[in-house]
Amino acid sequence: MSDDPDDLERRLRSLSAGADNVPFPSGPTLRATARRRRERRGAVVVVAVVVVAAAIGTSVLWRPTASHTTPASRKPVPTTTTAPFVTTTTPPTASTVAPEGTQDIRYDPFTATGVDPSLQVTSQASGTCIRYGGGADGQYYYRCFAPGIYDPCFAGPQGTAAPLVCPSSPVSADVVEVTVTSITSTEPPTASVHPWAMQLSTGQVCLFVSAAWGGLGPYGCQPSSTAPSFADCHQPVSAQPYWNADCQDQQTDSSPFTSMEVAKVWF
Q1: Of 240, 259, 257, 247, whose CA–CA distance to 104 is shortest?
Q2: Where are the domains of the chain?
Q3: Which of the residues 39, 46, 197, 221 has an alpha carbon 20 to 30 A from that of 55?
């Protein structure tokens, strides 16, 4: 329908031509009425526009940013990586300092159930043994002939009823088991205690040998690639901080003895 006032007036007059005594507004009145209608329509449109703009502004103002909300499909999924057979070692907080002075070590090749499993029995033999004293806490050492010479040998919780253990060196896991067929000496323990092995400051290891030395020995030293390398040593003397032992290059009366520091002793 047209909003033109003149057209509106003509239409209204034609519709009301047959009405009796019905007054009809004049042209100016109709124009004012149409103008008010247009103004009201314009005001409604303006209000609607303002409301929509306010709604859009509010939505923009309060919409959360990507840093606050992450779609579930985009959120990182935590994973656990397991490295099999990884051993982690925590480093010490302080550097390890070598002990100052000679180390006194108790050698025990047995557990409550038999030979210490950390040792390796390389062979087994049987023969006669000589028991002699000198071990710590009144313990015995054994010198066995089976048929080679094994010295020293050690008895476990069962005594000589079980095989003796004869180490080749205190720094080696290799041992020989000797079954005792007879004991040719029952020498009682002596108050004199001496280590069955010692290690010099050079690293060379020397073992006590219960034999006639004629003023030499009684410690026979195992071959060593270090220099100096000694053939035998006298009984070590306890001192602080290091024990001392006189050692010679050759097992002869003419070979001079040199005083050496002892790093370790085994009883």
Answers
A1: 240
A2: 103-266
A3: 39
- CA atoms of 246 and 233, how far apart (whole Å): 6
CA 110, 264, 138 angle in degrees (round to 5)? Answer: 50
Q: What is the CB-side half-sphere exposure of residue 148 using CA atoms within 13 A?
A: 12
Amino acid at 120: Q
For every one of its 267 residues, what pLDDT tens digit does the chain have, with 9 covering 90 and above? 555 555 555 665 555 454 444 444 455 554 555 556 555 555 444 444 443 444 444 443 334 333 333 333 333 333 333 332 222 333 333 444 456 899 999 999 999 999 999 999 999 999 999 999 898 888 899 999 998 999 999 999 999 999 999 999 999 999 999 999 999 887 766 678 999 999 999 999 999 998 889 889 999 999 998 889 999 999 999 999 999 999 999 999 999 999 999 999 999
